[in-house]
Amino acid sequence: MLLIVELLLMLIDVTYYILRAVVRVVFHPRPKSVDGELCLITGAGGVLGRLFALEFAKEGARLVLWDCDTVANERTAQLARKQGVDVRAYTVDLSKRQSVYDAAEKVRAEVGDVSILVNNAGVVAGRRLLECPDELLERTLLVNCHALFWTTKAFLPQMKVRNHGHIVTVASALGLFTTACVEDYCASKFGAVGFHESLAHELRVENNDGIKTTLVCPYIVDTGMFSGCEIRKEIRKLIPPLEPLYTVQRSMKAILADQEMICIPRIIYVPFIARALLPWEANVVVYRFMGGDKCMLPFIKNAETKTSCGESQAS
Ligand SMILES: NC(=O)C1=CN([C@@H]2O[C@H](COP(=O)(O)OP(=O)(O)OC[C@H]3O[C@@H](n4cnc5c(N)ncnc54)[C@H](OP(=O)(O)O)[C@@H]3O)[C@@H](O)[C@H]2O)C=CC1
Ligand SMILES: CC1=C(/C=C/C(C)=C/C=C/C(C)=C/C=O)C(C)(C)CCC1
User: What UniProt keywords apply to this chain's record, in alphabetical order (predicted)?
Assistant: First the structure.
């Protein structure tokens, strides 16, 4: 009897949450205030990281900016200070666990407890698996996936004490479905998605309902990170690369609404769902038709000469 009652209650909840999600597509919930919150953004010297910093500054959040590129990070700090908020920039190599823990200690001592953590930094090897040095493949996992463990372990305890906070994971559409020749990146972003979901479950199970989580999964964004990546010309007109500012503004809307997940643009939910529903071969023919299968080949040609954290990828 109890089981039937619980089953009915569960179905009512399921219906409620589906309806709520549909209504929220049209009527956005009132955004929460982050005025005075301490927000840490990783990869803040990069394109999306800088825009996240400026958007959070606009909302009145105090900022802690982490990046391995000191000059780019300081530039972001300068720009954000113009919005009249306190900003501290730290040079951190996220691929090194101790560098993360040391910087976190410094932040706690010099600034205070972080209440919003935006895990945004990311890298990609940009090489075919068999031609890619092992260290480059490892670095993608360290920065895009392992660093999520270290930053979260460093800042979640203080959020738990106050049952207040927000952890944002900037993953990717390539954390939901895949394409050829980005094995390192897809593995790291699928890892990031899994990390995010498990953490979100843990917070619910432990009744830390004041700590929110948001997963951000964008399609190609015009930041240069994936320059050259393109799908079939005719389809590109329908799904063009995203503007960085649009991507960050859509992400901010989701974060401030305490939304659990956002795919940008919304059409990206379709290949995500299709991957789970259709047979593998059916997905393959759709990818082939849309030019999704070979979209990374021109990117890989481009990426061979790029550098990150002072390391040359063209060795
Ligand atoms: N651009 C795109 O098409 C998409 C991007 N994303 C994700 O969005 C996020 C931001 O990307 P985007 O702004 O385009 O990329 P950027 O390369 O512009 O920014 C990433 C920043 O992270 C920094 N970084 C890299 N490695 C480390 C490290 N070891 N320690 C500290 N900082 C590091 C980079 O420094 P440096 O420049 O020295 O490497 C850079 O400043 C990433 O997680 C990316 O995977 C998701 C979907 C699409
Ligand atoms: C595979 C595939 C597509 C292309 C996806 C691309 C090109 C994604 C690129 C994402 C990037 C660069 C993410 C970075 O984090 C379509 C045409 C949408 C649908 C069919 C399957």
Answer: Lipid metabolism, Membrane, NADP, Oxidoreductase, Transmembrane, Transmembrane helix
Average pLDDT, the chain: 96
Domain that holds residue 269: 32-312
Reported ipTM: the value is 0.98
pLDDT, residue 311, reads 56
Number of domains in the chain: 1
Closest CA to 73 of 65, 81, 84: 65
Which residue has the CA at smallest separation from atom 20 of ligand 2?
287
How large is the average pLDDT for residues 41-63?
98
Let me know if residue 27 belongs to a domain: no
Instruction: Give the three-class secondary structure for 90.
Output: strand
- The closest of 206, 91, 86, 200 to 148, measured between CA atoms, is 200
Atom of ligand 1 nearest to the CA of 124: 45
What SS3 state is found at 225?
coil
Question: Does residue 165 form part of some domain?
Answer: yes
- How far apart are alpha carbons 209 and 225 in whole angstroms? 35
Q: Whose CA is nearest to atom 5 of ligand 2?
A: 292
The catalytic site residues sit at 185
Q: Does residue 305 have a pLDDT over 80?
A: no
Pocket of ligand 2 (CB under 6 A): 172-174, 179, 219-220, 226, 229, 231, 235, 239, 271, 286-287, 290, 292, 295
Identify the CATH number of the domain in which residue 206 sits.
Answer: 3.40.50.720
| 212 within a domain of the structure (yes/no) | yes
Residues 114-143: tens digit of each pLDDT = 999 999 999 999 999 999 999 999 999 999
